[in-house]
Amino acid sequence: xxxxxLIALCGRSGAGKTAVTKRLSELFGWTSVESYTTRPKRKExxxxxxxxxxxxxNKIPLExxxxxxxFDGHRYCATTEQVEKTEMYIVDFSGVKTLRERYHGDxxxxxxxxxxxxxxxxxxxxxxxxxx
Length: 132
Known about the structure:
InterPro entries: GK/Ca_channel_bsu, P-loop_NTPase. It comes from Clostridium porci. The protein is of the alpha/beta class. The chain has one domain (about 5-115): Guanylate Kinase phosphate binding domain (2-Layer Sandwich). The chain has four helices and eight strands. The strands form two sheets. The protein has a four-stranded parallel beta sheet with strand order 6-1-7-8, with helices on both faces. A four-stranded mixed beta sheet has the order 3-2-5-4. The longest helix is centred in the first third of the chain and has 12 residues, at about 15-30.
């Protein structure tokens, strides 16, 4: 049984979001959403996203998308099913806003962590902590 929370990790590129998710996975066995994206792979074997074409992205039903954003001209989204099966999600600020508006599933305790200095997120709980 999966946990009844979702940690949304937000931050600028290079802030350490992926490193945090890897460490939490090692410590607690938590998994992370692999969002759909129209962005091409940066390298062979790249993980963290499901890389699809624009045509495939257009076939994802809007009612199933609970997080959506466009970054650098590429679209990203996560579905209710993906969120329900995981504990973590690396997402930008726009994606967090969409997630908070559209996600109405079992995971009520969204927590957001930001590595962006002064940028403030209006989240249920915003906390900074150190990993062992």
